[in-house]
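Hi Q.,

Before the meeting this afternoon, I wanted you to have the magnesium ion prediction in hand. No need to reply - just skim if you have a minute. The sequence and ligand are here:
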Amino acid sequence: MNDQSKPPRQLSCADDYDPNSMAVDKAREVIGRFLAPIATVERLHVRAALGRVLAEDVISPLSVPAHDNSAMDGYAVRFADLKTDAKVTLKVIGTAFAGAPFAGAVKPGECVRIMTGAVVPEGADTIVMQEHVEAKADQVVIDGGHRKGQHLRRAGEDLAVGQVALKRGVALRPAEIGLIASLGIAEVAVYRKLRVAFFSTGDELVSIGTAPREGQIYDSNRYTIYGMLTRLGFEVIDMGVVRDDPELLEEAFSEAAATADVVITSGGVSVGEADFVKDLLNKLGEVVFWKIAMKPGRPLAYGKIGNAHFFGLPGNPVSVMVTFYQFVRDALLLLSGRNPVPPLPTFKVPCVSTLKKAPGRTEFQRGVLERDSHGTWSVRVTGEQGSGILRSMAEANCFIILPTDQGNVAAGTLVDVQVMEGVV
Ligand code: AMP
Ligand code: MG
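Predicted structure with the ligand bound:
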């Protein structure tokens, strides 16, 4: 099932890459050439739209605020009545409340008691905070030194009628749904949720609840993938574990591609295994197998099966998460309609650990960003970095990204860190 707005182009057109040593950026760029946002739009009540992606610009149907109003509790005055360096006495002729405006006009020598949010009465152009006046009976004494127009929120200063309040492609967070409500809009157009099917491959895998036999292990990738997809707000279709059996795999790939926009698998793409999966995927669609110049996460497959996009991730649990964050996350956000796709926050901090690194591949080491008692941030590496050591991911809150040409890193060096989804 698919409604991509651009027809799929042949992967073979992407001829300027080296499948045996693809640079990380190059692989991202090649994948990007095949992506176009889903086109189906649905209209939802603003609350139900929380977390969804806006499919059309939201145009303001009104001025916000609708009227000039007071930003303070105080007195609405005519600035011309005030003196720069002397006190003046004004007559209080009434009160303006938020939601209950003062009906008359303020004439010279007069003022109106005004509450925050109340409409500024005709004739007044300045608000004096109540802390700056001496109130006695129906008069107030106001000191000098005020500025014309102070403490006044102007009609339309937030949004003018017809102005774009929110752009298509933004994700609706609490701030956005509040803004939409402030415009009196009850329903918005959002993209339907991206449907992502996933399964694990491997004869050695058992699901929790089944006792592993000698040599068998529990499937963890389906849980990390489930978690990462769910966090991003997609509709997930968990297809379980599929054994390394061509018939079962063919059935699973076909079913997944028929029901989802994207199919993600883990395992079965490393050398040896890939040959057999390769034949199958060549039969079902058009898929390329890459060795990415990265660590961890070297093998990666990308392509189309029918109209569905396919990501074949490595089997190692850490590699799955690294390749997901480096390639899959941004691709899925683009497909889901996000525009622009927000990158994971990346910045430089000093690394307090010594890092082992050989030039030749981009490395994504697992790090812990932390703040010392003086408020200074630094990063340290989480112990062992083996691609099967999922604990290193559980302890981490960031990736330390070491560029291709980088060698060993001495303690104290500035390094690039990328904060993981959900940390901020
Ligand atoms: P593969 O890429 O299929 O050769 O798998 C590489 C390594 O990752 C092997 O040690 C597998 O046992 C392990 N592995 C593969 N799939 C999973 C999974 N779903 N959960 C945990 N470990 C896995
Ligand atoms: Mg395997």
